[in-house]
Structure formats: structure tokens, C-alpha cells
Design brief:
Order of helices and strands: HEHHHHEH
Distance between the termini: 17 Å
Oligomer: single chain
Number of helices: 6
Strand content: 5-15%
Helix content: over 70%
């Protein structure tokens, strides 16, 4: 259930990014956002651990900040695999979106999910 909620949140984030950053982020619709979100979560399960393992020394030297670069790489890979329905203009924008997604997901996790769990 948590995975589905995460995919839906990322799909909504993709829609918001596409609406706000029209010149650098293109999306054909909600179904493309949902497909990209599911594909991104699959890449995060399969590819991201391998990338983290290969770049572990750099990640340690940068005190974990290189993980944003790894997230940007998975976003670019999602862009490549999705084709014309999901486009990010350049690696810099993918890096910016990875930082933005991390901040929004952190906010949602801490404020909304934790407050919901504390009421139970």
C-alpha cells in the first residue's frame, strides 16, 4: 500500500513539475506521469543499489550528496525509457528535480504521514 501511495505522490509531483517548468519538463498526461512514476520506482529498486555500490567512495567523500546525482541519473534513465511522453531537458534539470522531489517527499513523509500515524 505504501508503494502505491509513493507512486501516486510522485505522479502528482511530475504533473506539478510539468505545469510549472513547461520549458524544461514535458509530460503528455497523468497516465504518462503514473507510468514514469512506476518505472522510476522499479529503477530505484533494481538500478539504484548498483549505482550506489559503484559510486560508494564518491558518496562517502561528498557525505551523501552524490546520492542526488544518482537520483538524477535514474530520472534521466526514466526519461530515456519513457520516450516522447516524458521529457526532461538536460542533466542539470534532472538534478534539480531530484533535489526538489527529495524535499517534497521528505515533507510529505514527516508532516503528513507521521501526523497520521501519531493519531492512531
Amino acid at each position: 500500500m505504501r508503494w502505491i501511495i509513493g507512486c501516486l505522490i510522485n505522479a502528482v509531483l511530475f504533473m506539478a513539475f510539468a505545469g510549472y517548468f513547461r520549458e524544461s519538463f514535458y509530460l503528455t498526461g497523468f497516465w504518462a506521469a503514473l507510468q514514469a512514476s512506476i518505472l522510476l520506482s522499479i529503477l530505484n529498486i533494481l538500478v539504484r543499489p548498483i549505482l550506489i555500490l559503484f559510486t560508494l567512495p564518491v558518496t562517502v567523500l561528498t557525505m551523501g550528496l552524490f546520492l542526488f546525482v544518482i537520483n538524477a541519473i535514474t530520472l534521466e534513465l526514466t526519461d530515456y525509457l519513457m520516450g516522447e511522453s516524458f521529457e526532461i531537458l538536460g542533466f542539470g534539470m534532472a538534478l534539480f528535480f531530484s533535489v526538489l522531489m527529495a524535499l517534497v517527499n521528505l515533507f510529505i513523509q514527516k508532516v503528513i504521514m507521521d501526523s497520521r500515524n501519531s493519531k492512531k
